[in-house]
Design brief:
Helix content is 29%, strand content 18%. By secondary structure, it is α/β, with parallel strands linked by helices. It has 2 domains: 36-135 and 317-334, Rossmann fold, CATH 3.40.50; 137-306, NAD(P)-binding Rossmann-like Domain (Rossmann fold, 3-Layer(aba) Sandwich). A hairpin with a 5-residue loop joins β1 (26-27) and β2 (33-34). α5 packs across α7. The longest helix is centred in the C-terminal third of the chain and has 20 residues, at 315-334. The protein starts with 13 loop residues before the first helix and ends in a 9-residue tail after the last helix. Mean pLDDT is 89; it is low at 1-23 and 26-32.
Length: 343
Amino acid sequence: MRRLPGPEHPVGGGAQARAATAHPTTPRRNGLTRPVRCLVLNDRHPLPTDTLDHLSDALEAHWVQTADGGLDPAEEFRRHPDTRVLVTTYTDLGAENLRLLPELELVVATTTAVEYVDLEYCRERGVAVCNTAGYTGAAVAEHAVALMMAVAKRVVPVHARVRSGDLLCAGEQGMELAGGTAGIVGMGGIGARVARMVRGLGMAAVHANRSPRRAEGSVQVELDELLAVSDAVFLTLPLDTATHGLLGAAQLALMKPSAVLVSISPNEVVDSGALTEALRAGRLRGAGLDLVGERNPYPPLDNLVLSSRFAANTRECQERRRRVWAAAVEAFVRGRELPHRIV
């Protein structure tokens, strides 16, 4: 299997450099070469099928897309066992499925999170994995702030009452955010953008992060302190063993009853049962969640605003995403260093 240039195997000089940058086509018995077989497997928002056309001289792309979440990866892998490059979105890439692709050399996740990929299997088998880090730009941070606003200002229930003819909306009251504190859990690129945005609303910002992280205009504190002092708590962190169930009943109990919880993290970061109970009991003002998972674990509640994998669904964001994942495929085909390589 060709050793790919990347973090573990940087391109050096001599024979190693020539091998790493050679055109990755496979010789046929008749002396000709065949293009790299690429499978694009996607059952989410459709990916533009002309994205890889500029690589048609060296890449044979097979597109399998649906919009209903009904793809069976094992079935598709059996149909395309000679796949060397796999481009996919939230597909079950556990070891059992990946074994069906014996020639696989590169997985390109069209998402930032890669919890659905068995990274250890890929590492052991020499399969490179790239994600699409950095494509979200301002879109996800804007959506997080919009969820905060929708909950704090009771936009959804007020809208429903006005549409039904109740123009007074007696008993409804919004929450003023200026002068309050926003707590950001996970100070990465998105968290930093959220911090800048809430400061523009007149809020102070604090953040919690598993490692020391400086952020302009924000003070790092421990998680328990953040939960206790914040009027709005933002979860902007990925799912891993350390963040699974990070916010349970004990953590939610530390929050102010007047506080708003916002999450753009995978569903499993929050204990959905504990959050549902807190919302029903009025122990939180409300929550705004962009669900990232296979189901909605929450019942209808008028202090809960939901979207589903919608935070990054803007025209500008999707165009950046397309460029990022296509660049990884092109780098492989042209024998260049892989961008955003994590394995």
